[in-house]
Amino acid sequence: KTIGAYVKFNDILITEQLVDSKELFLTANTSTLYIAPVLDLKEHGLMVVEAPPGLLGGFNSAWFEYISDIGVFGPDKGKGGKFLILPPGYDGKIPSGYFVVKSPTFKVWSFMRLSIADGVEKAVQLAKEKVKVYPLSMANNIPEMNFVNASGKSFNTVHHNDYTYYEEINKTIQEEPLEMLNPETRGLFASIGIEKGKPFAPDDRMKNIL
Q1: Which of 5, 30, 72, 114 could form a disulfide with 123 if both were Cys (CB 3.0 to 4.6 A apart)?
Q2: How high is the pLDDT of residue 1?
């Protein structure tokens, strides 16, 4: 499964009581409020992310590579604003009033971090009042956000470390544009049978090797 397979565009992960050892949340710390939506540009087209002031965060591609910052180090300079995320190859009109982010992949993971210096409850309130995620087509009729509290929940953002890891890689390669990976990396995967547009069907010998 991938996150995008069952998460709706207005489902937003939030850690209302922060995180602890129950959550296998890669690189997370225990003194920051996290807000993390998942964007599916293939299904919804251009997406808008509204961010409050004072954030530290960014956008990552489906290959978990950096695309752009949000907040203090982003184009909004920590003042917040509306970000418009464009799908790969988009060459249509771009409306004004947005910080434009061009994504190389259809799936985009966004993470935002809010300081809890003035208290966790205040940070949670700010996030729920200001963070919004929706298709640009719904800009005139923004639906209600569904904040999902992940604090105290057991979940795992770390990839498998057995053969199924390669199945996860293949799934992403099949879903995303060919240009997501450079030719050298594509060649390495092709050498073990992972190529876009072709089935990944290793025999038992190759499965054991992998």
Answers
A1: 114
A2: 38
CB atoms within 10 A of CB 9: 20
| Alpha carbons 132 and 129: distance in angstroms, whole number | 8
Rounded CA gap, 99 and 76, in Å? Answer: 7
Beta-strand relationship, 99-102 and 11-14: unpaired
Which tokens is 46 given? 């251009």
Q: Supply the DSSP string of 156-197, one letter for each residue.
A: B-SPPSSTHHHHHHHHHHHHS-GGGS-HHHHHHHHTTT--TT
Place 22 in a pLDDT band, splitting at 50, 70 and 90.
Answer: confident
**Per-residue pLDDT tens for 33-58?**
999 999 999 999 999 999 999 999 99
Rounded alpha-carbon distances, angstroms, from residue 26 to 57, 101, 105, 159 = 14, 24, 21, 10
**Residue carrying structure tokens 């690189």:** 27
* Cβ neighbours of residue 169 closer than 8 Å, sequence gap 6 or more: 189, 194
